[in-house]
Amino acid sequence: MTIEINIKVVERTSLAWLVSDGQKDAWIPISCIEDYAEEDDGMLGTNTTSIVIPTWLADDKGLTRHVKDVNTLDLFGGTP
Prior knowledge:
This protein is mostly beta strands. The chain has one domain (about 1-60). About 10% of the residues lie in helices and about 45% in strands. Strands 1-6-5 form a 3-stranded antiparallel beta sheet.
């Protein structure tokens, strides 16, 4: 099983990414990242915003899934 975790990439090497879920930082081997999402950051390029990794790895590293709040009004008119 896999889990998608909202993260910020703190550092990258050729073998792993140091990610933060807002509560915990952890090194994740690139070979274990099954998918990832990026968001355009304008002139600064792109930011990786989430990763899909095996559930056992997320548990082992202490990373937690954050549930997106779909009930909060988007003040800028976007869709949740």
